[in-house]
Phosphonoacetaldehyde hydrolase (Vibrio maritimus), 105 residues
Amino acid sequence: MALKNAIELGATSVGACVKVDDAAPGIEEGHNAGMWTVGLLLSGNEAGLTFDEYQAADEATLSAARERARVKLGTASPHYLVDTIADLPGVIADIEKRILAGERP
């Protein structure tokens, strides 16, 4: 689906696309499509927290949820792991630098 979406959006270089997902199969899909991949640690299913639980969680709870997600997402080897989509601007900036330096996903 990620590759199909990139084609339908008219992306001229899949290697400049970023697949953000909260589960290992989605990260694998991004790799298979030739995209950069970002795994979501706390704002996704692998953390096992509802939004309300996330909002109310103390640091120990967040750390445990983060580690659970890191283990599950790590099996797919995402290029980046971030807590939430709020962390994406920094990741996108880093990916842009890497692309300019000639790196590929």
